[in-house]
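Z., the sequence and structure:
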Amino acid sequence: MKEVACVDLFCGAGGLTHGLIQAGISVVAGIDVDTACRYPFEINNGARFLAGDVADVKPADLKKLYAGARVRILAGCAPCQPFSTYSQRYETLTSPRWPLLYQFARLVKSIRPEIVTMENVPLVEKHSVFDDFVATLQNLGYKVWKEVVDCTQYGLPQNRRRMVILASLIGPIDLISPTHKKPRTVRDAIGALPAIEAGSTHDEDPFHVSSKLSSLNLSRIRASRPGGTWRDWPERLVADCHRRDSGRTYPSVYGRMTWDEPSPTVTTQFYGFGNGRFGHPEQDRAISLREGAILQGFPRQYAFVADNGAAHFKVLGRMIGNAVPVALGEAIGKSIIAHLGVAAQKHQAELKDVSNVCCNPLVA
């Protein structure tokens, strides 16, 4: 795999990159506009982080990063907020995030990497920018595979569905078969972590830190059961917005996770008890930053801030929630390796056939 090199556009904290590396693919660089991602990306992956807008990346810059690799992989997950269910009510086509897939396509057209992979929320396929992206790949001669993937089937302990594209100039490509028949659970992922209280930090892992709870929310989480809703609470604890008719249909907030099921989808605000079903299954707090990262597939030792660095919940929550799940990145990487292996075998068989024809006097 030394002749294979990958550049990760919109790399963030390195979820996709880390998964690709675990699969055996060399990631030489990541590009992202969020400079807070530099430390976790570089320290955990040994790859170069380039801060900047993908719209400003020149084809010549990418060619230098690949440094003559025979197989070049261009990977990335453009920010998914414009395509999410929540954002459909607020985002418009004037958002600067909408054209980012077109910038991805621009770079593909310019350098023609042998393999392209893209990941995003399922709703991205309902937008013309997605159709245009796929059409660009097909018009350039890529064999394209695209499908919504259930990440629990690849070992992620979280209910998360993602649209994945794999495209190759070498030949047909697809995602490997599911690796897990039985989903991993919240207990499997974070059950062994030491207990902490709301607003506290574990002595041996500064990233195992939970947000504070008001006295009201502390009473609410104590009244919550795993898998339940705020409808289980005494009337005095129910928020005013949920008493109104417009709020009665939103039960998936202020809830506890369930030990023996995958977690709900981790969002950029998973550290807040009131932001979703992000209450710990039994401790009276929201899940910690470390727990959120583990549910996203990051190894327990993955460093997001330097030693003694401050844990800014908003910044780190965004970084973790926006990440490509590591388990999905690894599945994508293994799929690419399998694809290249098949292509190499086919090439060797073709060479053997040519050799047999040339060396056989009867055929000649």
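The chain has two domains: 4-183+325-350, 198-321. The longest helix spans residues 326-359.

Let me know what you think.
H.
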